[in-house]
């Protein structure tokens, strides 16, 4: 394969990564690894590279000079093709060399997957149902997943990471009090106190009417204090934030699809509230799930923020989201009326706590890694059956099936990690910290990361699934597996449309746990190294981050699609 001893370490590592081999170790080890690489695989890899070169004889000859004899034969064919204006290019050439691959689909038990999901949901908070990061519920979830890996015959570990989180208390109130007409017996009215006996109070339900937002602070504002409430519109920089100082700001969440500016992120809004000295911040949902879950209304949902953007955590600013109807009631009865707002939020955002990452590990013949992941934490305010119990359950079932396959076929060629992440809802903490800890190993050995986050299709709002990623060769394999899936699962493939897309690395979204594997493996700000990842997005899950994301909506049948397709890709890469 040429005199590899004259190459730099960086060149050797790049060559090893391009042919799917580990790229860690000393230079002598890298040289030996390349030299011992199977010639058939060299042929495929080099042929792909040759065909990608500009079709000039000079460019081809420069590359061909380093090839083994088998590849030289193919090079000759390519040159002959060029001279006759009939060159074979890229993957066409590789297919010509190896022929079309035959993909074998893994088994997938949807009933077992539902059982995994139900087991996780049962571990939720006794009142709020969620498995919030840093809580007993999240730790128990991680331990349960680790046990399930072990029960599938897969050795498992669990790692802890200390991160900045928030601790939910027990007191959460939102109430509008309209003062009565009868004053205190000692003279003079005391509006909305216990002495105001004919006052009218409208209490709103926690989780259904209002939801606390991530990293809210702690505040206790009684109605009798008659705090100032200011409508800030969409809350942009030009809104009347100064007038809300020492009061409560009301911000309407809008998308800006009408050509107007949309509402900025929770991070920006709370930073602005902190700068202007607000005691409370209320966002009104007027843009998501409207009319879909509750007729004529928009259900409030949990949303976090980037706490690393704050020099000082806003410990004394309460932060919640309300439904559209509640926001309208606040405007009509408080801002434009005589009502007084009671606003109580009990959250400690000054604490650090631990999140957990369980991993099942199928050790392969090489250190080249495939990682299959999903986050197991949820928003605090619901079961999180779709987001993301569905993904965590799918990872467990893929692990069980590949564990059985390993017993049948022997160890895989590549090492396979099955991991679930805590801390995703608060900022991808689990996957980010895990990648930081294992960056050197991943930089040298990561072959592919597969992410399952809401890989679920609602049975009543079915618009199929999207499989996408920044690894063109693997996307091509996915297309072949989809074709095999459509032949074997005709009913499911006709029911759930499957869209497959290749993205440039810079186009990969950064909203789930694949992001650290794509953008976080580089060794510095100027390192443009991107990890390879595939992700699945389901459809129809308007309930996510609300109290309605429960097992009543769970559709285990839809998980067969991503479970079989991604699991079969791993089977192909690790055992073929």
Plain-language structure description:
The protein has 576 residues and is α/β, with parallel strands linked by helices. Helices cover 35% and strands 19% of the residues. It folds into three domains: 4-98, no CATH class; 110-165 and 352-469 and 504-560, Aminopeptidase; 167-348, Glucose Oxidase, domain 1. It contains 17 helices and 17 strands. Strands 1-11-13-12-14-17-15-16 form an eight-stranded mixed beta sheet, sandwiched between helices. A five-stranded mixed beta sheet has the order 4-9-8-7-6, with helices on both faces. A four-stranded antiparallel beta sheet has the order 3-2-10-5, covered by helices on one side. It is elongated.
First and last CA, distance: 24 Å
Strand order of the largest sheet: 1-11-13-12-14-17-15-16
The CATH class of the largest domain, by name, is Alpha Beta
What is the average of the pLDDT values?
A: 89
The multimeric state of the shown protein is: single chain
**SS content category:** alpha/beta
What's the CATH topology name of the largest domain?
Aminopeptidase
Number of strands: 17
Report on the biggest sheet: 8 strands, mixed
Unreliable stretches covering 5 or more consecutive residues: 46-75, 78-90
Q: How many domains in all?
A: 3
So, the CATH homologous superfamily of the largest domain?
A: Zn peptidases
Overall 3D shape: elongated
Our estimate of the beta-strand percent is 15-25%
Q: Give the helix proportion (percent range).
A: 25-40%
Which value, in Å, is the CA radius of gyration?
Answer: 28 Å
Individual helix count? 17
CATH architecture label of the largest domain: 3-Layer(aba) Sandwich
């Amino acid at each position: 394969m040429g005199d590899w001893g004259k190459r730099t370490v960086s060149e050797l590592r790049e060559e090893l990564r391009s042919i799917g081999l580990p790229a860690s170790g000393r230079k002598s080890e890298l040289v030996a690894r390349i030299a011992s690489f199977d010639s058939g695989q060299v042929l495929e890899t080099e042929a792909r590279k040759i065909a990608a070169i500009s079709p000039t004889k000079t460019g081809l000859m420069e590359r061909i000079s380093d090839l083994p004899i088998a590849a030289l034969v193919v090079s000759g064919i390519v040159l002959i093709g060029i001279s006759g204006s009939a060159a074979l290019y890229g993957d066409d050439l590789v297919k010509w060399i190896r022929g079309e691959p035959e993909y074998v689909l893994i088994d997938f038990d949807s009933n077992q997957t539902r059982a995994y999901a139900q087991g996780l949901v049962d571990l939720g908070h006794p009142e709020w149902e969620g498995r919030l990061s840093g809580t007993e519920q999240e730790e128990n979830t991680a331990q349960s997943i680790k046990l399930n890996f072990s029960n599938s015959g897969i050795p498992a570990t669990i790692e802890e990471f200390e991160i900045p989180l928030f601790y939910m208390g027990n007191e959460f109130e939102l109430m509008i009090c309209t003062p009565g007409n009868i004053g205190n017996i000692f003279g003079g009215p005391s509006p909305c106190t216990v002495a105001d006996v004919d006052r009218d109070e409208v209490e709103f339900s926690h989780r259904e009417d209002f939801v606390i937002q991530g990293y809210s602070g702690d505040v206790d504002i009684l109605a009798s204090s008659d705090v100032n409430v200011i409508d800030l519109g969409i809350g942009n920089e030009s809104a009347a934030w100064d007038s809300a100082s020492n009061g409560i700001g009301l911000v309407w969440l809008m998308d800006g699809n009408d050509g107007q500016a949309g509402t900025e992120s929770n991070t920006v809004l709370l930073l602005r509230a902190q700068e202007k000295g607000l005691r409370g911040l209320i966002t009104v949902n007027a843009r998501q799930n409207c009319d879909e879950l509750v007729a004529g209304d928009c259900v409030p949902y949990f949303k976090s923020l980037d706490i690393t953007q704050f020099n000082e955590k806003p410990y004394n600013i309460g932060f919640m989201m309300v439904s559209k109807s509640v926001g309208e009631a606040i405007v009509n009865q408080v801002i434009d009326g005589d009502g007084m707002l009671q606003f109580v939020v009990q959250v400690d955002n000054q604490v650090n706590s631990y999140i957990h990452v369980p991993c099942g590990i199928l050790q392969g013949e090489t250190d080249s890694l495939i990682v299959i992941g999903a986050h197991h934490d949820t928003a605090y305010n619901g079961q999180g059956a779709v987001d993301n119990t569905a993904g965590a359950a799918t990872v467990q079932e893929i692990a069980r099936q590949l564990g059985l396959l390993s017993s049948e076929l022997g160890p895989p060629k590549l090492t396979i990690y099955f991991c679930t992440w805590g801390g995703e809802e608060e900022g991808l903490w689990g996957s980010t910290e895990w990648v930081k800890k294992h960056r050197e190993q991943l930089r040298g050995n990561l072959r592919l990361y597969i992410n399952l986050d809401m890989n679920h299709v609602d049975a009543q709002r079915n618009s199929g699934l999207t499989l996408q990623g920044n690894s063109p060769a693997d996307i091509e394999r996915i297309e072949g597996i989809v074709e095999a899936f459509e032949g074997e699962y005709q009913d499911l493939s006709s029911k759930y449309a499957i869209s497959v897309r290749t993205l440039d690395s810079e186009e990969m979204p950064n909203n789930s746990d694949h992001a650290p594997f794509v953008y976080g493996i580089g060794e510095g700000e100027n390192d443009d190294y991107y990890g390879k990842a595939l992700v699945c997005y389901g459809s129809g899950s308007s309930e996510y981050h609300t109290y309605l994301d429960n097992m009543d909506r769970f559709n285990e049948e839809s998980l067969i699609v991503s479970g079989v397709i991604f699991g079969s890709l791993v089977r192909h890469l690790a055992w073929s």
